[in-house]
Design a protein that fits this description.
Blueprint: H1 3-61, H2 69-91, H3 101-124, H4 128-156, E1 160-161, E2 178-179, H5 180-189, H6 216-227, E3 235-239, E4 247-251, E5 254-259, E6 262-268, H7 279-292, E7 298-305, E8 309-318, E9 321-333, E10 339-343, H8 360-364, E11 372-382, E12 388-397, E13 403-409, E14 415-420
Parallel strand pairs: 1-2
Antiparallel strand pairs: 3-4, 4-5, 5-6, 6-10, 7-8, 8-9, 9-10, 11-12, 12-13, 13-14
Helix pairs in contact: 1-2, 1-4, 2-3, 3-4, 4-5
């Protein structure tokens, strides 16, 4: 190689090394900035977690001294807001919060229980039982907040460090330090199991379970009869534990989920061809199928036509009232009229235990005078805790043309829910 060529090649190599070094330095600076920014975000999130849990404890503690309905409602709102803030701040910490499911569940239950008391507490105040539960939650929140403050002091002293989403090499780590996630897990492990209590809220422990008595062989037989096949033609795909003991089977392109109550759901996986049936024919097929399955007192609750599949919803009725959340969903393929999907997981044949103590005229007094009433229907709705609530649904329009539905409880005469169209 000529001397000139060697000089040119060397120059190019030096230029490449210089450029690579500059690129590496820039990337390293960017990574350092990213780490500093992540650390700042983690610190702020943890600071907000400590503040919110402390405020939650304080809000719950006020319940012991509240006698006015308005103050009780305000305390409920404060507790719910602080519990939500703490849960949101924990989500921003750089580790998987599902590992801290007990702490997360405590925050969720605390906020949900407080907000579930709000409607009654606003007019009647807290009962002695409510105060006992709120005091216990306040004490637990205070202990949690105190431990968080200790952890925060250790973080500030450099004895505890935040987790990092990226992996760091052990041989370049400075002095090993305890991770925040490990300290939180240790605290969670040392907690006394929380005593569950029933309340009418999303996380209330009193849940109705459907009664079912089918054996596993009977469940398989029910699934086979549902699709018109022999039991040995079905394949067991999944086995679920629990009181309902669900089993999932497959037959050709059909997937069935069966519990001890019978077939809960079925769906096909095939592609539906061009429509050959109209909606009237498909609707008749669906209703005949439901009647054959023993559903004889359902009311239409809505339908949707995709062009190839007609999806319908039928709900139970009682005392002249529809139960929109106690329903069966079914879909008919418009190419051959087969049942494309079926879902009865939300259906319960047992009658709702409700009492219509308030008549329609009395319930209508809960409406604002500015609303123009269009229609009234009787419905049995579900509360957050899945309790059956008899309601009058008032379909209204306000002075600006906004349509809305106001649900008034037939048990108390108070507004139960408001839906804007």
């Amino acid at each position: 190689m000529r001397r000139k060529d060697k000089i040119i090649l060397t120059s190019y190599a030096l230029a490449a090394v210089t450029a690579l070094g500059g690129w590496g330095a820039a990337k390293n600076a960017g990574l350092a900035y990213h780490r500093a920014d992540t650390l700042h975000v983690s610190a702020r999130a943890f600071e907000e977690t400590v503040r919110a849990v402390d405020a939650l404890s304080e809000a719950l503690g006020k319940s012991v001294y509240a006698t006015d309905g308005g103050m009780c409602a305000r305390i409920c709102g404060e507790a719910y807001a602080e519990a939500s803030a703490a849960e949101g701040a924990m989500l921003a910490l750089p580790f998987a919060t599902q590992e801290l499911e007990e702490l997360s569940a405590f925050l969720n239950v605390s906020g949900d229980y407080a907000i579930s008391l709000c409607p009654v507490a606003a007019s009647e105040g807290f009962s002695e039982e409510d105060i006992q539960h709120l005091r216990a939650l306040s004490a637990a929140a205070a202990d949690f907040a105190e431990n968080l403050r200790v952890m925060q002091e250790d973080v500030n002293a450099g004895e505890l460090r935040f987790d990092e989403r990226e992996k760091r090499l052990p041989n370049v780590e400075d002095a090993p330090k305890e991770l925040l996630s490990a300290r939180l897990l240790d605290y969670q492990a040392g907690l006394t199991p929380r005593e569950d209590f029933a309340y009418d809220g999303r996380y209330g422990c009193e849940k109705k379970s459907r009664a079912g008595y089918l054996t596993e062989d009977e469940m398989l037989t029910a699934a086979a009869e549902f699709v018109g096949a022999e039991p040995e033609e079905l394949t067991l795909l999944y086995r679920y534990e629990g009181s309902e003991g669900r089993r999932c089977y497959r037959y050709e392109d059909c997937f069935l989920c069966v519990s001890r109550c019978g077939v809960d759901s079925m769906t096909q996986s095939r592609l539906v061809g061009e429509a050959e049936l109209d909606t009237r024919e498909a609707r008749k097929i669906a209703e005949d199928f439901l009647a054959a399955q023993g559903f004889d007192s359902l009311s239409p609750a809505g339908e949707e036509n995709s062009g190839t599949v007609l999806s319908l919803c039928y709900c139970a009725s009682q005392d002249g009232a529809d139960c929109p959340e106690n329903c069966v969903k079914i879909a008919v393929a418009l190419d051959d009229g087969s049942i494309f999907s079926y879902n009865a997981e939300d259906y319960c044949s047992e009658k709702a235990e409700v009492s219509w103590t308030v008549d329609e005229q009395q319930a209508a007094q809960a409406l604002p005078e500015s609303l123009n009433l269009r229609e009234t229907r009787k419905l049995i709705c579900k509360s957050e805790g899945q309790r059956d609530v008899p309601c009058y649904a008032f379909f209204c329009e306000d002075t600006e043309g906004q349509t809305l539905t106001v649900y008034v409880s037939a048990e108390t005469g108070r507004q139960f829910r408001i839906d804007l169209a």
